Every structure is written in structure tokens, then in C-alpha cells.
């Protein structure tokens, strides 16, 4: 199709996620500075030219005054972003509370928080009400900006109510929902007090997507067992309406990483790191500091490896880069001190005057530093206790075409299904298993490393983030057309 001005027609895509892909810093009463934060979703959609994308979400700041809100809205419009303004109380109850304290741990098999289960149901109930209210606020902004023919793509566990809110307002809207975390076994989902409401709300979407077939299957089982609906190979049927459910494994913009390795600043990082760790094998962990990432377990496994392999002392270093997240949540603060305590103990135990076995950084690295680190690494350790997909494993593989390093990967990360054949798969809870995998990886022959890398590199290059986004949206368009045909028949 062609537009009136002769340019090719591009379908509008409204991407709705809790956070906008920008960080906003207030500079004055009516001035803001904005910085694009290139997370997975942003880089996925940056490469997609097929759609005219608009972002709808929270800017991550509290803006109580109208002047500030107007100015921020205007500044964001230049970045094709539309803000949802949430006040502090809602953020506390909806985001810190229901999203991060209840859904996040539950979906990663860490259970519901004990206090909430035992203490006043009002605590739980009020967080749930705030969650619904926040979702309605997102819906109001979508409805205001929606134009006929737009595709609305809702993201993640923060917005499980959104499909229902949108469809209640406009049945014709094309609505897709994608979950970036695992969807747990229906036996786990059953424990959630609001289990049925959430499932019904998600089922209002036309297309529901997950990273893996297992998560999709868990979701369909939850709908059949908890709601008593019928699961079909296509999805879930509810009173004649089919909600299509399928797996859409995400990828990365691999070319961006591969190209970066030729940039002068990345080459400088690589040279400096090689000099700094000369004569030692480099092992790397890059994670958000979150309990699901299994950081303490990983470091304890490394300790066990050192205990059992004296010959490797001073010949190997573990660089653990952990970006702090959700720093105001006590459990995350506890995790930080726990990790510091273990690292301190191991460095005290195995360190010498000239070398320490673990370098732990509590910060994020910029893209160029990260690429440099990935490129000089001999063994990457991704030992998440559960992880929807895990993009660090993909990024590492993309930067390893020269070195052909080894990936040790948790079998509980979605990525195990795609990179499992090339990686050494481990159960992150089994410290002996991980310590053995470290030994195997460090001693692996170059022929074996090459074979494993080739498999994974091919996968990472051919399953990109752009392809993921395009496939999801085209499947959503097709699903809606098929549903229309079915109703006409
Ligand atoms: P995350 O839990 O954030 O994402 P992940 O997929 O590994 O996990 O992505 C993390 C991103 O942050 C990567 O792009 C990585 O480079 C970056 N990052 C992490 N630590 C960093 C550091 N110290 N410095 C700089 N950058 C750092 C959620 C789900 C995942 C799912 C993604 C995408 O939990 O399972 O793969 O969404 O769907």
C-alpha cells in the first residue's frame, strides 16, 4: 500500500510497556533532558522499519505538576514516546508491590512472599487494586492515541490486565500481549489469589506470546485447569472466541555487536583487558543483581572449583558485573550484601599479593566496554535460577567469533532451548555440577569449542530481535483476519 504522499504505507505499532525506553531527568520547571536507554526491546524495535512505532509507558519519574507533565509530554513526543503519569502511591503499590514483590518472584518459581500470604489480605488486595488501576491508566492513554488499524502490542507481567481494558473499550482493536518472563507451571500459578482474573484479562488479547513452547503450554494448562476452558493446538477457546497462544523466542540485534568489535574504542578496551589479565583465563558473569540470576550460587560454584583445582589458582579470574536494580527493595539490598560477603570471603581465602580470583563490580557497563569484555572472555557463566530467555548469553556468543569461548548456561533459562546444543548446560542449584562444568570449559579442546560455538553463532545470527518483532506483529495481523473470517462463516 502507498500513502497519499507517495511513501510506502507503514502500519502504526503502539508498543505499551511499563517503562518507556528513555530516562527523563528534570532540568527545570518546564525542561527535561532525555536519554534513550537501549534495552532488549528497544534494540529489537529500532531495527524494524516495517512499522511506525510509538511507545507508551511510564517515564520512571514522579511528575505531580501540570507544567512538568506538559513539558515532558512535549519532549517525549520528539522521541515518539507517550507518557503515562503514575503517582508515587500507585507506583509503590502497583510496581514495587504487585509487580515486583508478587508476580516477579512467583513467575520465577520463588513463591509468594510469606508476609503477604499470612498477613492482612488487605495488603495483597490493595496492591492488586492498584495494579488494576495502573493498567486502566495505561489503557486510557492507549485509547486516546489509538487510530483505526493500529496494532497494540502490550508487554510483560506489569500489564496483564491491559488486553481486557483495551478490548472492553474497543472490541476491534488488534491486541497482542507478550511475556518476557517464564510463565510458571499451572501448579505455581494456582497459588496466586488473583489467578483467574489475570488469566481472563490476558485471554482478551488476540495473540498471547511467550519465549518458549513450555511457557505457552503452562499458560494453556493454567487456563484449562483453573478456568475450565478448552485448550487447542492453536490456543485457548472461550465461548467461541479463540485466543491464539504461541512461542516467539526473542533474539538480539547481533550485527550491532559484531560491528562494534571493529570500532576503535572497543579495540582499545580489548587490548587493555588482554594486558590486564595476561596469562589468566577470563570467566565472565553479566547480570542485573536479582535473585533469579543465581549470582551467589555461581560464585559458590567458582569457590568449589578453586578448592578442587589448586593448579588453576592465579590462572583464572572471574569478572562478575552486576547492575543494581530495585535498590529500594529490602530483599535486593540483602542480596547485595550477601554477594559482597561471599566475594570478600573467597578473595580473602584464595587471593595473593598479586592476584584476586574474583572482580565484582556493582555497576552497569556501557555498550563498548561490554562488547570488549565479551570478546576477551574464555568462559561465560549464565546460571540463572529461572530466566525468561536471557540475552546476555546471546550477546556473548555474538562477540565470540574470533575466540570461540565456552558458554555455561543454566537449563532453567529460556535460552537453554536455543543455545543448549552449543553450551554446557548446568543445574545452577547444583554447585558441584557447575564447578565441574567450569573445569570442563577451561580444559575444552579448541576443536570442540569451535564446533559448539559454530552452532550457537549461527543461531544468534539467524534469529534476530527484528525478526522476533516482525513475526509477532504479522502473526497478530493474521490472527485477527482469521478470526474475522471465522465470524463471517
Ligand atoms: P533481563 O532480566 O533484564 O530481561 P537479560 O535478557 O539477560 O535479562 O537482558 C539483560 C540486558 O541488560 C542485556 O542486554 C545486558 O547486556 C544488559 N546488562 C545486564 N547487566 C549489565 C551490566 N552490568 N552492564 C551493562 N549491561 C548489562 C528480561 C527477562 C529475560 C529476557 C529479557 C528479554 O528477565 O529473561 O531475556 O527480558 O525478553
UniProtKB/TrEMBL annotation:
Top enzyme category: transferase
One MF annotation (Gene Ontology) recorded for this entry: trehalose-phosphatase activity
Entry keyword set: Glycosyltransferase, Transferase
Coiled coil: none
Gene Ontology biological process terms from the UniProt entry: trehalose biosynthetic process
A cellular component annotation (GO) from this entry: cytosol
Keyword GTP-binding belongs to the record: no
E.C. code: 2.4.1.15
Domain of life: Eukaryota
Keyword Coiled coil among UniProt keywords: no
Family named by the database record: In the N-terminal section; belongs to the glycosyltransferase 20 family. In the C-terminal section; belongs to the trehalose phosphatase family.
The name this protein goes by in its record: alpha,alpha-trehalose-phosphate synthase (UDP-forming)
Native source species: Cajanus cajan (Pigeon pea)
